[in-house]
Amino acid sequence: MKRMTKVKHCAICGCQxxxxxxxxxxxSLDGRSHESKHHYVAKRLLGRSETRRNxxxxxxxxEQCPLKLEGKYGWFCYECHEELLQNLVLTPxxxxxxxxxxxxxGFNESQKTDSKxxxxxxxxxxxxxxxxxxxxxxxAERRRRVKERRSxxxxxxxxxxxx
Length: 163
Ligand SMILES: [Zn+2]
Fold this sequence. Notes:
Blueprint: H1 29-32, E1 35-39, E2 73-77, H2 78-85, H3 92-105, H4 117-157
Antiparallel strand pairs: 1-2
């Protein structure tokens, strides 16, 4: 009997994920929608990266996952994983603003020390900026859509005002 595999969808764009072999990253529909597992907090930040097994150990940034998401992951399409999440787009203005935020929060460094606390704090600060930005945009978009629906239903149900 053939095993039934559950169809998975990308956690961001919602596309149906492809599991076709040897096409990952190809510029084809299967390559672009190929399933890709993404850890919410990268293993390397927690010192659990397998790619460093034979190299000198790197001091970890977080001894414990600050978001309590160690080992948690989601399924994404190639595009959302590799091109959206892994290639964060920041303009020079974004960088300048973040730099100022880093300095105001006291997470800047004039020289590196043995401690990795500051980079950990900068990572959490950037996460916080993204989290707050997403929430703000979501609230604004929901309000815009409600307004749009209200004006559509008003147009459809109300007779024109005759003065
Ligand atoms: Zn996607």
